[in-house]
Amino acid sequence: MDKAQFERRFSKVSSFNRGRFAIARQIMTKNVNEVLDLVPILINYNHPAIPGYRENGVPYGIDMFTPNDFQRSYLRQRGIDPDAPSSSFWPVYALYAMGSTSSIAQGQKSDLDIWVCVSKDLPHFEMNLLAEKCKFISSFCKALGADVNLFVTAENRFISGEHGTMDTEDCGSAQSLFLLDEFYRSSFRICGRYIVWYMISLEDELRDYAGEAEKFYELDFLIKDQWFDFGSVAKCSPVEYFGSGMWLVYKGIDHPFKAVLKILLMEAYASEYTNTMLLSMELKSSIISSRSFGLGHDSYYILYKKVSKYLSKINDIERLNLVRRCFYLKLLEAVDGQQKSTFLTRRKTLLRRVAALWNWSRNYIDDISSKKNWNVSSLRLIQTQLQESLLKSYKALLRFSVTHGIEYAITSDDAGVLSRKIYASIDKYPGKIMQIYKEASSFMEEETLTLVLPSPNTVCRHGWHVYPCDRNSLDLLSTKVVYIAPRAVEMVAWLTVNNVLSNRTKVYVCGSNSTVDFKKIKRLSDDIKRFFFSKTIHVREDDLRQARNIVKSMIVINFENDFTRKFMISNSDLELGDTLSCGRQKMCLVGSIDVISLNSWGEITSHSYSDGELGVVELLASILRGSSITDSHRDMIDFDNRVKVCSYSSEHGDLIRYDLESTIKGILGCFSDYESTYVFNVSHNTYEARVSDNKNDVSIIRRSMFRASDDDVTILSRFGMRPEYALQVPASVEHHATLGIMQYFFAREDEGWKIYIVNERNEVKIFYGFNGSRASLVNSINRYYTALSDANSTKSTLNFNLPQYFVLGNDQKSIHPFTISNK
Predict the structure, then answer these.
(1) Per residue in 749-786, pLDDT tens?
(2) Is the peptide bond before 794 cis (omega within 30 degrees of 0)?
(3) What does the alpha-carbon distance between residue 540 and residue 261 come to, in Å, rounded to a whole number?
(4) Which of 66, 139, 286, 303 is the most buried (most CB within 10 A)?
């Protein structure tokens, strides 16, 4: 590259950067523009007069930073000379904005993602100090009304191959192909050094990027300290395509509206392998060769065009329509709140053109554009479409991994975490409360709900029916039911979890011989919100490695069938016994029993029990199953945070709640060293909670009336293993067994390993004397399940959930996840 060629290329890249920066500023509000000017100052200086000052030696200073007029004024107001001589070396190379900023997807409410690019020689502890300061700056900017996210990024990050965890902005054990590709195609320089990659032509990058970059640094006229390099995105291996795609699927489960285009782009990339041309490379070639810059250089538009072309090629019309809708709504969101300007006019023109190109009718455009038209039914339909799209991408990536022999592109640990993340979000089973995506929750609230319980003799489906309209409205005859639940508690849980029912919602109840009314419903809904959602629910990657367990449980008593209305109860009855067995008639005042639970994978479930005595004992047995010797002490101390008993009785509600809580605590106390048994009465029967001889678990036994132990009956939880299987495995394995999940438990033997295989129905098989590599075995099993999922790709359901793997301690009591990546 001679000097003239360098100057032409540098001029075009610089012009393109200035254009993007100018567009971003014109779209931003005045307040956000000022915050954008503040960020370089906060990072360049570490001065007591500047917010973010640290005394712990935090790195500061940006190469080639020259304050603008606003920044100079800001510094002078704080007694700092903006023209003071500076050091010859600064650890921060540059600040680059990336993402939707400056694209047609940028709106006034868009967040601003900024990479703080630093030297690879910066010590790790100093990088952590800078990252902490950047977190403060992000919080400071949010307080000023700007959503700014700062990411400290070392120049060798994409060359070293280091990675973090799946639930961070990194890519788990996958490489960072997609992240670097997105950065190159969407970024612009705010201040600091220039990036070498933009100066290397497409042809040279494909031929020998490292060699060309080395030659570039050797140019006589180049000031080397003005440049740095993240490396090339060309000639990526299939491992990187698969790994980056899987990471995007993981991130997209919680935010599908934002991620659907990115996931499909990775699928499109994988479909073109080995002749894939990344968008960033196409864009760079276009920038260098173009005379002017237009829509074809917009990072969001070229993303949509690539995905649209791919879906048209494979004739996937359903996902093509979904992508068009997401693209249109993203542009519409960006237009919202914009002041009249040339950019606003251009975007509205683009919206009209794409709608006409897709043959959308005026009614359809009005329907999807107006958020007033969004309701529970339409949002559930969109959710279903997004889930199906995500699963198709997941299956396409699995096929890609099998075709190219890279099933281990991400470790078995990460693959298992991802499969369980999908399972927890998408899989349906009886009692599970399916959650609408949080991005749509603000549109779910209904002004009026009518809840109908048809009579037993009707032809209607059994259960509670939810209609989003007034019971006296003629619309009720033509309105489709949006949800049907077998029990009232499950119905209220679904309405509350998905924000369909709020404090402002008018509720009408039309029940057949039901004691449920709108006051009870509102009260239960408020209790659910306070107990489960007082804090944000966050599922960590480590949670998905462990067996699924209950985090919180709400026990709902007498909501649908109130036994205090069934019996005539006097004060003398309450003085004789407790509310589980009171008076001479031994009345149990607990009628209907429902339990709403939150588990460690983020799933919310609702299970019902039999009314009365049988339900109470079955409930207690289930609570015991969720406890063990190791966590019983925590259960007792943290009982009020983990378990909440709510009584909706018309009478004596507090007394019933107190008695049931006392019984639960008494049974859990059997795990302690002080008590080995606990005796209690329910209705006419006496029960005893008794610790087993090996001190591993507690059983609930119904005593016979003659006190002969041979006639006693052991009560088993319906959620545990059947006895014929439970007796074959250690108690710790039985305790960890989870319905719906395939699990493998490795136990050390004198010669090799014993393997307990517990299937989705909690049935057990045992293999003895395994002496091979457990890592190879685990990968082989995962490969089998991957192939099985691909073979079932034509079916409506997908076996996407990979097994879990655990290792038993030598005492056969402790269990920890088997990992590969950490070995």
Answers:
(1) 888 999 999 999 999 999 999 998 998 898 888 878 77
(2) no
(3) 25
(4) 303
- The pLDDT score that the predictor gives to residue 208 is 93
* Surface-to-core class of residue 674, CB atoms within 10 Å of its CB (0-12 exposed, 13-18 middle, 19+ buried): exposed
Confidence (pTM): 0.85
- Across the beta sheet with 713-715, the strand order is 677-682, 685-691, 698-702, 713-715
Nearest-CA neighbor of 112 among 145, 90, 153, 82?
145
* Segment among 90-94, 517-521, 529-533, 710-714 with least mean pLDDT: 710-714
The domains of the chain are located at 3-232, 235-277+315-436, 444-534, 548-719, 724-817
DSSP structural state of residue 434: P
- Helix, strand and coil content of the chain, in percent to the nearest 5, comes to 45, 15, 40
d(CA 60, CA 58): 6
- Residues 6 or more apart from 208 whose CB is under 8 A from it? none
Structure tokens at 210: 């490292």
Q: How many helices (H) and strands (E) does the chain have?
A: 28, 25
Strand partners, 148: 112
Cα 173 to Cα 164: distance, rounded to the nearest angstrom:
7
pLDDT tens digits, 288-307: 988 778 889 999 999 999 99
Return d(Cα 501, Cα 492) in angstroms, integer: 8
